[in-house]
């Protein structure tokens, strides 16, 4: 039985629970935060399963199939950053980092390696719950195609690779996700709001520098003339469009 359920037997997970409520996996080794999150999230209608280390978390990812993971960085058997990267490579389950490490470098690193959001300790429980609900409302970009080819680009969604003129382009995780979002709506306008909601949950619409930086980097990698883009077009005041 997971550590949280052991402390609170009335919160044990049943089949009915899993069918009707979102399952949250909390990976946290501090007992005070375990207890607070277990009680607070359960009262809000979530099913909570808990792990105190990465080894337990790996087991619960298989058995509990959580809808979202709350993940600390400093864990007894490894780094939460490394485990977040592992989750990102193996599953589309969203991760919110919940950690005492609050430097800008830590926040940027967490988001760049695939975290949906980043919350620092101590946190307001109501704010964390609001962020959880926001993440659960926003699915990742999706496409029925495994490979999209246009111009001199070949985007492989399964292998997460981009080939240009026979050579693989090195993209960061967020750069690939942004290109995949545009490619899944090829020829259609993708608004700034959709970009931020899909890839940067919790980022304010008023602060779009991160989005603009990633678009600029993509153009430098996929366009012949980044200053006069042929494929990745800006629709002023609205968003972006990827043209074939």
Summarize the structure.
This protein has helices spanning 3-7, 15-20, 31-43, 54-63, 80-90, 104-112, 125-137, 173-183, 192-199, 209-222; strands at 23-27, 47-51, 68-71, 74-75, 78-79, 95-99, 117-120, 147-150, 153-156, 161-164, 167-168, 189-191, 232-235, 239-242. The protein is of the alpha/beta class. The strands form four sheets. Strands 2-1-3-6-7 form a five-stranded parallel β-sheet, with helices on both faces. A four-stranded antiparallel β-sheet has the order 8-9-10-11, covered by helices on one side. It has a three-stranded antiparallel β-sheet with strand order 12-14-13.
Task: Report on this structure.
- With 244 residues, this protein is of the alpha/beta class.
- It has two domains: 3-137, Response regulator (Rossmann fold, 3-Layer(aba) Sandwich), CATH 3.40.50; 147-242, Winged helix-like DNA-binding domain superfamily/Winged helix DNA-binding domain (Arc Repressor Mutant, subunit A, Orthogonal Bundle).
- Helices cover 41% and strands 21% of the residues.
- The chain has ten helices and 14 strands.
- The strands form four sheets. A five-stranded parallel sheet has the order 2-1-3-6-7, with helices on both faces.
- A hairpin with a 2-residue loop joins β4 (74-75) and β5 (78-79).
- α8 crosses α10.
- It is elongated and about 55 Å long.
- Mean pLDDT is 82; it is low at 1-17.
